[in-house]
Design goal:
alpha/beta; eight-stranded parallel β-barrel; 221 residues; globular; 9 helices
Length: 221
């Protein structure tokens, strides 16, 4: 299992960036200290996704920010990205691992304690669990899970668990207290006009909640 060296993961949705380009919004977020980015633009045809990924990779490379991509293990390898993020309908973790190798991260989306535990058992490096709170971007995945499910998943997971769904600055310490390794955000950053300022504010809250280096955490082995 690779070490997970970030606590704040920004998940993209170009429909939220107020008419500007996703690349410019992410450049602002990276400049303000975002720790990792998951490119989640599932509706794009391959050529358009390839072009967008190349643009974003150029931005993240400037600050050595890990860039992961949803599902596309081929692009993760072709563009030498930091890893791939899998959904329930994606390749199994074992198959993805054979393609991306041991030096790239594999994350998995989970929506229950059982799914989070299974992802770790299957060899994922981290899990994103949600939605923890009500949020428009995650309504398709059902009712919010809440703190109790998050805490249960963190207790039973062998890998770091990131909380997603309705994460705000005020809720970061609460999800930390429930056992989360970090937080993943979409609209809470990209849905704001001041992406840079919001990123810096969230990053400050994350560093306060988790003052230790994630490489020192017991899950980051």
């Amino acid at each position: 299992m690779l070490p997970v060296n970030f606590r704040l993961l920004l998940v993209t949705d170009r429909s939220l960036v107020h008419g500007r380009s996703l690349e410019s919004a992410l450049r602002e977020s990276v400049a303000s200290g975002v720790q990792a980015i998951q490119l989640r633009e599932r509706d794009l045809p391959t050529r358009e996704l390839l072009s967008l990924t190349q643009q974003i990779r150029a931005v993240t490379q400037e600050r050595a920010v890990p860039l992961l991509i949803n599902d596309r293990v081929d692009l993760a390898v072709a563009l030498d990205l930091g890893g791939v993020h899998l959904r329930a309908s994606s390749l199994p973790v074992s198959a993805a691992r054979r393609v991306v190798g041991r030096h790239r991260l594999i994350g998995v989306s989970a929506h229950s304690v059982a799914e989070a535990r299974q992802a770790g058992d299957d060899g994922a490096d981290y899990v994103i669990l949600g939605p923890i709170f009500e949020t428009p971007s995650k309504r398709e995945f059902g009712d919010p899970l809440g703190f109790a499910v998050l805490a249960d998943a963190c207790r039973h997971s062998s890998v770091p668990v990131f909380a997603i769904g309705g994460i705000t600055r005020e809720r970061i310490e609460s999800v930390r207290d429930a056992g989360a390794f970090g937080v993943a955000m979409i609209g809470g950053i990209l849905g704001r006009a001041d992406v840079g300022n919001v990123t810096a504010d969230m990053q400050s809250a994350v560093r306060t909640a988790w003052p230790s280096d994630p490489r020192d955490d017991s899950h980051a082995r």
